[in-house]
Amino acid sequence: MSLFDFPNEILLEVTEHLCPGDLNSLLRTSHFYERLLTPRIHRLALEEKDGLTALQWAAVKGHEPLARLLLQKGVNINASRNGWTALHRAVRHGFEGIVALLLEQGADASIKGTAGMTALHWAAFLGNEKVVRRLLEMGVGISTEDNFGKTAAYYATLRGNIAVVKLLG
């Protein structure tokens, strides 16, 4: 007897006990399993992981297809955990594609996270010229101060990120 012979209800019950990676592998084996299991994998994608919202997790891991799916499902793009939004996390981890996606989908780049730092503060601190440029194109204010009265230009200067200092100047 093969798995195809079992009723869908039994197959769905069995998949409740599979880890996401195994579930994903199974759904890739046939069109039947893909149709049956895709809604389950989408439900899993919406769950919190490691204390992060699903979108933040996608931002940390650089998983652009998942981020796109979550945004299509209507998740809160500006949800915060421990003072960090998905945009903060994507900037912090250097995933420019996810930063661009989040900004295109309306992420609020002016939200202050830990210590009052915005996404621009982090991009300047890390010397990510492309992200700084993208944020400036979106109209992010360069004079925004963190909780210590420091601007993004201060952090770029502190770290010796000359190209970013010039962009912010």
UniProtKB/TrEMBL annotation:
Pfam families linked to this entry: Ank_2, Ank_4
F-box domain location: 1-44
Keywords: ANK repeat
ANK repeat residue intervals: 50-82, 82-114, 115-147
InterPro entries assigned: Ankyrin_rpt (IPR002110), Ankyrin_rpt-contain_sf (IPR036770), Cul2-RING_E3_ligase_SR (IPR051616), F-box_dom (IPR001810)
Parts of the chain that traverse the membrane: none
Classification via PROSITE patterns: ANK_REP_REGION, ANK_REPEAT, FBOX
This protein's name: F-box domain-containing protein
